[in-house]
Amino acid sequence: MIPIENKTNIHWFPGHMAKAMRLIQEQLKQVDAVLEVCDARAPLSTRNNELTDLLGEKKRIVAYNKSSLADDTITAKWTKYLMKTPDPFVFCDAMTHQGIKSLLTLLSQKRLVTKRYQRAARIMVLGFPNVGKSMLINTLTRSSGAKTENRPGVTRGNQWIRLSNELHMMDTPGILVPKIHRHEDAFVLAALGSIKETVFDKYALCLEILTFLKQRYPALLQTRYKLSDLTLSEEMLLSDIARNRGLLIKGGETDIDRASNMVFDEFKNGKIGKITLQLPPIKP
Prior knowledge:
Layout: H1 7-10, H2 15-27, E1 33-39, H3 51-55, E2 59-65, H4 72-82, E3 89-91, H5 100-107, E4 121-127, H6 133-144, E5 150-152, E6 159-164, E7 167-171, H7 183-191, H8 202-216, H9 218-225, H10 234-244, H11 256-268
Parallel strand pairs: 1-2, 1-4, 2-3, 4-7
Antiparallel strand pairs: 5-6, 6-7
Helix pairs in contact: 5-6, 8-9, 8-10, 8-11, 10-11
């Protein structure tokens, strides 16, 4: 288990996030729909279920970003599953532009984004930290052929971005939910970099990442770190990883702290291979 400290001890939901959430609630009145950006590697844990009550009748479109880092076979299963759920969605990647045209088409559909008054349709973009929200907006802007045009939002910290004459988007700060109840969600959000690193024990997280890789992606783990025996404990595997990468301290001992940081960074950034952390539920 990853020891994630209680929010009362460690600013799990810090003041700036609480303030951002209040501002989002206020500004929802000004928008016609919401684009929620999630991570394609964890479609469940990176969804903000607390938005449901806030949105009321406003449409929510979901972009599962970073799809080029996800396991293609499992993404296909998620696609089949999500087609039976109410929110329209796209698997896309801001870096490779995969799915960007499909997302632009979705955003331009009047049945989903019904503008009010004689103005451009307004879409608020929301998402947890590190899901690639701002990069996705920049990619959408370039792909639409519009010049990037940022102008201050009504509230400080948010930006209106002109995607086209008919569509404007509001970028918002990345926010987490106030409480994370399931350990699986805590592990996923920590492993993908959505949670501030001071909140959890990175060594413990690294051991759990190794457990996950041993169970689900043993070939990727073995190839990436040149490991010969995956039956070893996670602690021994981490030591072998440090030795194989030359992460040593005085006296030839393995530098476990550096090894933990390296495995965490490489997992988070997709360098180990195409990995998905969550399988779709049996029923939608």
